[in-house]
Amino acid sequence: MYNLVDVLERLRELEKLGGLKFMVLHVLNEGPKNGTEIMDSIEKHRKQVNTMLNSQSHTENAEEICSSLKPSSGAIYPLLKKLVSKNLIVKREDSRYELTENGQYSLEKISGHLHHSLNKPMNRGMIVVDTALNEIESYIRFLSDIKPEKLQSKKESISKMSKMLIELEKSLK
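Above: the chain sequence. Below: its structure as tokens.
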């Protein structure tokens, strides 16, 4: 669950790691856009963050942090080309860009659930559930990368968790 301070902290970290990449993926998660629409959407998100920060009296450096998320065309178009070459987005025939499956995965990996805090009214219960499911999925991906022989001694625990997940899924029907 993220409060406003957590959101601000994540924005600072994302900016250090290349926040523009995150913002492009984030706005394309809303649907296909051309370069100008991407820049406009990023500006809109910047304004939302400023409004949230100001309304919560967390104004320290808010403008400085959020304004750095507004891209220029000289920054956005080379980045779009790079994201296409990395198969994170595709450029459609109508010159609009959209996320690929790799882009969607990368966005989730980078953002966790920051996008819930920026786009939608907070439903704290669902954010907690989403966070737990993301963490479980991350741990499963991690374990999947380990050689099976190294996990052999944990087979009983893995089997128990698998049965628990199956029971949970059955309860949802």
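Residues 35-55 form the longest helix (21 residues).
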